[in-house]
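Attaching the record inline, Q. Sequence:
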Amino acid sequence: MDATTGASAPPDARVTAHHPGGPEVPGPGLDDTAEPTRFAEFALGSVCLFAYTVPRVPGNLAAGLVAVAALVFLSTVRRPTRPTVHLRWLPTACFLVLGYLVAVTVTSPDESLFGWPKRAMRLALLVLLLLALVNGRAHLPSLVRGAAFGLVLNAVAFYAGVAPAPYGELLSGYLLDKNQAGLAYAVVGLLLLAQATQPRWQVAVGTATVAFVWLSGSRTSLAALACGLLWFALRPRLEAQGRIALGVAMALVIPVIESRYALVGSFSDRRGSDQFRATIDAASQAKLGRAPFQGMGLGEAWVLYPNGDTFFFHNSYWSALVEGGYPYLAALMGVTVLMAIGPFRRGPTPSRLARAGEAANIVVLVCALRLGEVFGTTIAVIALAAGLIGFAQAARIRDEAQDAEALRMLPTPLATPTGAGPSVSPAADTVTR
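Structure, as predicted:
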């Protein structure tokens, strides 16, 4: 039983622990990936990533946003099932950041395309979803299973000619964007990989994930998935220094691959789209140069194309800087890099879910380099929730190890030797021999 939330661990809950270079072995904890699927999370998860607008729904809301709202409402009538003693700061921090963004917005000229209140409400909804997943009011493994099922159906509907095809033969479907589709397939595939305990299922999930991302035609998502899979495979064998070196290597290699091999093979026909992106990037950098330290407010990450059309940024780091400035970007990087991935964290990953959460957030960081809206998406929130659950699990295991070590160091009470001399009877206050 957790003293902070009153949550208790399910009897079959396990956390895996291992040492670098050795196999994972089960240990006590709160890894619930083996628990039965919850129908509500599965059903809502199957559409929670869809950007397709639901007909006749007030407010012209996307199906995914409606599903997220339903998940948040469902979480209000449930009790937490995860201990959150190491994440007690999270709700306050999230709403402080959201309040900061609103304060910057209302004190700056409003040039947002669709009005900042709509974006603020979307971010608030995603914050509530994050908190519900982290404290267990919403069941993350069931949500991932549902999302995987929905993405498979999306691919089937796409190739059957039922789902939208705004990018022709490149897989997008109800996600309406090939890059967002690539991001979603990559993150969900990695998180589903954590639930596949048998090698043959791991191979099947990994192969299917690579295939779907390839079909999306998103070069950035392919590079991100490669980084995520590499992290997932090597993480059990790497101490903190090795993880830092791996992260630095990824950061150095990705720009080289993008500049030298972006137009090779199947991607040789992308020169026109790359020139289009370069024009948007130049305008984005110009706007970024005009933005003050605190940013320009919500909904401002867009530019005017030479022909008069408007386009959003194609870099989520720039988007964060324009909307909330350096404080907002620092908050995003702090929670994603330092906590959800934790390259400086000592010791092994506490569970497969934690390891997959780290890898999924690697994917998010890489995709943010070429996608304008990543950090404020449902799939990024799901990845962040998995990473923060791993952070809390690792902190709990560390505390338990410290407590065990403290108990071990306590002096052992000395036993009275047999026949050591007279003893006093408390009842009779007499001396016996």
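The CA atoms of residues 98 and 124 lie 7 Å apart. The longest strand covers residues 14-17.

More tomorrow.
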